[in-house]
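in:
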């Protein structure tokens, strides 16, 4: 029987951060396994050989955070390419900024109408405020109510129905209500203090995190195939919690994506890195990768995302589906997990939560602090 001190299942962001902390802070040996044939989990990227463009294999990743601790932690392993994300959506055939803001207002409405709506918004809510649609809908003013309805239908509804595969009437108002109108001319998708992309790509940053000689990585290795041949003092599992327990209480559902990458014979195809299509086509968004690191080539690579249900063995688990039933099922698995000794569930799949990268890092750092010596 093979023996290891720490076994980490999953070489994604949560697994590598824990491995790095255990190795560098505690001087402990760590074995990371992953069933994929590469490191990095969903943040894996690679340079396309022909064009030199860095492509994100599992969809576009832009790092953004207000958490200085997370920023400082990752900055030990990468230089950053300063990057502020700008996302557009095609509404009525016109590209407008997302979140829908004062500039968007002026793009889709005639001048007089846009000015009237702008003045009413500023008067009622103030400048530089994000107002959830639900709140806007509740205002007694007919014009603002019209605006709320417009943004809800044009920006939110079609996109969400495609993304989650639900009927509009089944959409929870608490979800739709969160879509904001941004009373501002700030055209950035995020307003976080730190926004950037690793200068040499995510995979290079992951390689740097894994550089400690106490960390060993074995790829193409599924936990279920080795679990009876290995003994560990601690197990950190960043795979799906229901899979760990052999689905004995039922399956936790996920949304997945069919991502189609196309190479185009032109320098640029789009006006910016991400275009959303709430009203047209079967894909939700198209993403042009050369924008991220400002890479030059006379060709370009664009991905198109077709949301679909997760099916085991066919595609990847991308998004947990947060609703009451699923949360109940997850909690039941969590109760089972609490009965295990020295087994920790981590990351997006282990916690069944849609973590952004910064939240993934923060939760791994926090878990590390609580792990007994
Ligand atoms: C389409 C998409 C876009 C995103 N964009 C952004 C963004 O712009 N900004 C942002 O901050 N965040 C973004 N995220 C979130 C980000 O990807 C996650 O926060 C992060 O990758 C989570 O890391 P993780 O380690 O928890 O999971 P993962 O990256 O999924 O890693 C888990 C690893 O475990 C392995 N594994 C699972 N089960 C087993 C098993 N039984 N045996 C062996 N190995 C196993 C898997 O192969 C995988 O490599 C995005 C996510 C998606 C899906």
């Amino acid at each position: 029987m093979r023996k290891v001190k720490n076994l980490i299942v999953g070489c994604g962001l949560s697994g590598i951060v824990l491995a790095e902390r255990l190795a560098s802070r505690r001087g402990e040996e760590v074995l990371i396994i992953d069933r994929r044939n590469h490191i990095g989990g969903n943040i894996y990227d690679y340079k396309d050989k022909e064009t030199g463009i860095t492509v994100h294999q599992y969809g576009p990743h832009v790092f953004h955070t207000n958490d200085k601790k997370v920023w400082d932690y990752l900055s030990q392993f990468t230089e950053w390419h300063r990057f502020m994300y700008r996302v557009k959506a095609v509404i009525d055939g016109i590209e407008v900024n997302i979140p829908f803001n004062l500039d968007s207002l002026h793009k889709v409405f005639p001048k007089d109408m846009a000015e009237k709506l702008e003045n009413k918004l500023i008067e009622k809510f103030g400048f530089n405020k994000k107002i959830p649609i639900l709140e806007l809908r509740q205002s007694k003013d007919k014009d603002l109510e019209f605006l709320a309805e417009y943004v809800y239908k044009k920006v939110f509804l079609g996109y969400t129905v495609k993304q989650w595969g639900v009927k509009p009437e089944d959409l929870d108002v608490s979800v739709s209500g969160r879509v904001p109108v941004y009373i501002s001319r700030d055209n950035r998708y995020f307003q976080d203090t730190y926004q950037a992309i690793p200068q040499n790509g995510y995979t290079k940053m992951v390689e740097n995190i894994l550089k400690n000689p106490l960390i060993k990585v074995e790829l193409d290795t599924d936990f279920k195939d080795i679990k009876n041949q290995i003994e560990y003092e601690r197990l950190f599992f960043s795979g799906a919690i229901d899979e760990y327990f052999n689905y004995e209480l039922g399956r936790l559902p996920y949304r997945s994506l069919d991502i189609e990458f196309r190479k185009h014979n032109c320098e640029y195809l789009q006006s910016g890195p991400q275009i959303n299509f709430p009203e047209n086509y079967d894909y939700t968004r198209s993403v042009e990768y050369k924008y991220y690191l400002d890479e030059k080539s006379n060709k370009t690579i664009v991905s198109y995302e077709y949301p679909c249900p997760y099916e085991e063995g066919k595609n990847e688990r991308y998004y947990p589906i947060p609703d009451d039933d699923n949360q109940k099922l997850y909690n039941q698995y969590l109760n089972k997990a609490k009965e295990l000794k020295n087994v920790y569930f981590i990351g997006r799949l282990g916690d069944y939560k849609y973590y952004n990268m910064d939240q993934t890092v923060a939760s791994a750092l926090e878990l590390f602090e609580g792990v007994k010596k």
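note: The first strand starts at residue 2 and ends at 9.
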